[in-house]
Amino acid sequence: MGGTMDGTKQQRRRGDTRQRIQDVALELFAEQGYEKTSLREIAERLEVTKAALYYHFKTKEEILVSIFEDLTKPITELIEWGRTQPHTLQTKQDIVRRYSHALADAAPLFRFMQENQATVRELRIGEMFKTRMLGLKDILVDPDADLTDQVRCVSAMFTLHAGMFVLQDLEGDPETKRKAVLEVAIDLVTQAHQGG
């Protein structure tokens, strides 16, 4: 290869490789489980050497953590944004709406987490996910609201989660189902806000 490639182009190619590794790893983790997947199998499916894979990631957990960080970045940004907003109904509805989109974009990751709960609990991503959930809860729940309304706000989050897994079996277009789930979650935060 010629040595004239500029740094940004090389950076982009490296980014693409990283992304391909993440996609293939998540596919394999979903197909055969995290425990049963080896770095060698990931390299083989990618048709790269194990050394090439090793250049980007040293362990399976590093790959999984990087997938988690990339796909949940919108959730982290949402929490940061939410902390700077007033505790209004509008803010809460916006958070629920944006969280619904972030979950939809990260669906393959959350499906993996749902199906590999024991593994997730033992890995760093379990703790990372819990921290994000608590961050969201703090923004959605008014500490001085009565218990029923606090439960409604937390239930709004779980409604969005349930929508990703439980409702897969229901008939209908995925986007229509996502909107129905979102409507129920928004009803819950609205009701909680009015209750307070």
Give me the number of helical elements.
Answer: 11
DSSP, total strands: 0
Average of per-residue pLDDT values: 87
SSE order in H/E notation?
A: HHHHHHHHHHH
Any low-confidence stretches, pLDDT <50, length ≥5?
1-13
Cα(first) to Cα(last) distance is: 66 Å
Strand count, sense and closure of the main sheet? none
Relative helix content: over 70%
Task: Please state the overall shape, judged from the principal axes of the Cα atoms.
Answer: elongated
Q: Brief overview, please?
A:
By secondary structure, this protein is mainly α. The protein contains eleven helices and no strands.
How do the helices and strands line up, and which of them pair or pack?
Layout: H1 7-32, H2 39-46, H3 50-56, H4 60-71, H5 73-83, H6 89-105, H7 107-115, H8 117-122, H9 124-140, H10 147-165, H11 174-195
Helix pairs in contact: 1-2, 1-4, 1-7, 5-6, 5-9, 6-10, 6-11, 10-11
What do these coordinates show?
The chain is mostly helical. The chain is 79% helix and 0% strand. The chain has helices at 7-32, 39-46, 50-56, 60-71, 73-83, 89-105, 107-115, 117-122, 124-140, 147-165, 174-195. Helix 1 (7-32) crosses helix 2 (39-46). The radius of gyration is 20 Å and the shape is elongated.
